[in-house]
Structure formats: structure tokens, C-alpha cells
């Protein structure tokens, strides 16, 4: 059974979590993010798998967010969050905007994050829920815009060359 925390405690802890996330977006120091989890934390990420323990979470997040497209995301703000005192959880919709591809546009997609609070500023569990196809389609669109603007870099081009066809819009068959 999860320890009970008040809504105020959960809200304060989550706002602190978001402050660290903002620092990470600025510094790209993913250790700061991983340090917010307990040593034995459980993390479910539907596209990448399940990670047991802070160090496994750290290794995964560092690898993922320093490679394209994660490396081109500029912020991770929560658009909203709710606190459930009975379960010690915070549920949030998190935005994942990419950097400007060169035309002033903002391309982004959101996910739902479910965090379980352990107390003392640490989280014992997390789960990210999203549609990987939406992330892929947004990334494809970003690459297309960056290519058109002449700002596509080598990691983005490599992603486009390897995965772009999987996310390119499908043409409807012509009718005869």
C-alpha cells in the first residue's frame, strides 16, 4: 500500500520536479532528472521498455535524450497535472516541443506521465503513455521543414534516412 501524501505535498513535489526538468532542458544534464527517482524506482516507457532502478533509468534517459529526436527537444513543460493523494500519484500531460527547424514553426507532441511519489522529493515509479506513431510523424514533419530550410543536421538526416519512410504521409490511391 502506498503511503498517503496530501494533495499539497504532491503538488509541491511535482512543481519541484518541473523546476528540475526546466533546468535539464537548459543544461541537458539528464543526471539531474534521474536523481529525482529512488534507487529502486520502476519506470515503464512503452516504446523503450521497463527499467528497474535509478541507474537503469539514468542510462536509458541519457541515451535517448542525447540522440535525435530527443536531442532536438527544447522543453518538457507540463500543460496540466492532477494529484491523487490516495495513490500518491501525479498525472500530467507533458509537451515535447522541438527546436525551430528554421521557419519559425513549433512542432510538438504530448505524452501523459504518471509519477508515484515516495517522499523526500523522490519518485518511486513512473510511466509514460503516448502514441509512438504521433511522435514519429511529428519528427518526420520537423525533418522535412528543416530540410526545406537548409537546417537539417546529420543526426536528423540519419533518422530521416533510416525511419522517415515509416512516418511519411501515405498517399491515397488515385481513383479510376
How can the largest sheet be summarized?
6 strands, mixed
Average pLDDT, to the nearest integer?
95
**What is the number of E strands?**
6
- Which spans have pLDDT < 50 for at least 5 consecutive residues? none
Features:
176 residues; alpha+beta; 6-stranded mixed beta sheet; 6 strands; elongated
Structure explained in plain terms:
By secondary structure, the protein is α+β, with helices and mostly antiparallel strands. The chain has 5 helices and 6 strands; from the N terminus they run ααββαββββαα. The protein has a 6-stranded mixed β-sheet with strand order 2-1-6-5-4-3, with helices on one face. Helix 4 packs across helix 5 (154-167). It is elongated and about 60 Å long. It starts with 6 loop residues before the first helix and ends in a 9-residue tail after the last helix.
In short:
The chain has 176 residues and is α+β, with helices and mostly antiparallel strands. The protein has five helices and six strands; from the N terminus they run ααββαββββαα.
Amino acid at each position: 500500500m502506498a503511503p498517503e501524501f496530501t494533495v499539497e505535498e504532491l503538488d509541491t513535489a511535482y512543481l519541484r520536479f518541473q523546476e528540475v526538468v526546466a533546468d535539464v532542458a537548459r543544461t541537458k544534464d539528464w543526471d539531474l532528472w534521474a536523481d529525482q527517482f529512488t534507487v529502486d524506482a520502476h519506470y515503464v516507457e512503452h516504446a523503450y521498455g521497463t527499467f528497474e532502478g535509478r541507474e537503469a533509468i539514468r542510462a536509458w534517459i541519457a541515451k535517448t535524450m542525447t540522440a535525435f529526436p530527443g536531442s532536438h527537444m527544447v522543453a518538457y513543460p507540463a500543460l496540466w497535472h492532477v494529484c491523487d493523494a490516495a495513490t500518491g500519484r501525479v498525472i500530467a500531460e507533458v509537451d515535447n516541443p522541438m527546436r525551430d527547424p528554421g521557419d519559425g514553426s513549433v512542432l510538438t507532441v504530448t505524452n501523459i506521465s504518471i509519477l508515484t511519489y515516495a517522499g523526500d522529493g523522490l519518485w518511486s515509479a513512473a510511466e509514460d503513455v503516448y502514441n509512438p506513431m504521433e511522435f514519429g510523424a511529428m519528427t518526420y514533419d520537423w525533418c522535412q521543414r528543416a530540410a526545406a530550410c537548409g537546417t537539417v543536421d546529420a543526426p536528423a538526416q540519419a533518422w530521416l534516412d533510416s525511419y522517415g519512410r515509416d512516418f511519411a504521409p501515405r498517399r491515397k490511391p488515385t481513383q479510376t
